[in-house]
Amino acid sequence: MKFICFGSGSSGNCYYLQAADYGIIIDAGIGVRQFKKYFRDYGLSLARIKAMLITHDHADHVKASGAISNELGIPVYATSLVHQGIKRNYCITKKVDERRVRNFEKGETFELGPFRILPFNVPHDSLDNSGYFITYRGRSFCLMTDAGHVTDEMAGFMEKADYLVVEANYDETMLQHGPYPPFLKERIACGTGHLSNSETARQLAAHLNREARHVWLCHLSEENNHPSLAFKTVEAELRQAGYPVGATLQLETLRRQSPSPLYDLDEPCDENPAEDSHQPVIA
Ligand SMILES: [Zn+2]
Ligand SMILES: [Zn+2]
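Above are the sequence and the zinc ion SMILES. Below is the predicted complex in structure-token form.
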């Protein structure tokens, strides 16, 4: 299973997961030309992309949903509310073609190629918002972003995920003393806004799977956060709770406007690991 992040934050979110030649885009907040360029740069094949999943209907997650799905001819999976939001969103000039609209219900598992996808609710001030718990060959990848708070259900997925992408949007002190007007500060900090570094740290320390391999902090604010601050806040809390950060657990922050490395997420060893291990990383 391979994972890459092409951008994470208010200027555009886009993630990519691929296994067994089946690729899924999660969110389409970067332009189609940029997206194709990144694919070329990383030696990835656009022909492998088979589907798009959308978290929610804010422009930084959907502005290229129509353009990319039309260009690649792939279906777009989201809740019907999110699809309604995409239709209404004036930032999206190219809408998702009706033939490519696919609806799912949160809490109901569905399959996309070799992946099993379980969408779940994430509280946020969009029309609707889904996190995804995705399994492939006994490994799980989970993404939860733009979350006003961590629900019990979300905590349950933190407890199960081997690989987790979770929001660490702002530092509480920086937000408080930062340049945003009071209404915006309130919007961000409320229960349907975004997760702070310290709240994410607290939730991870309380719930993260003890066997988790990798945690990526996503959707960092440009004005109210620093990657090193988000990292240190979460690292300190995880270490305090006895997590092996830097040993068997990797912790990283995702960059806002440039792609991450291409990660090769390992899968459980089978009886004949020699044939299966060390697949070359396409980079
Ligand atoms: Zn966002
Ligand atoms: Zn949002």
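Residues 270-283 have pLDDT under 50 and may be disordered.
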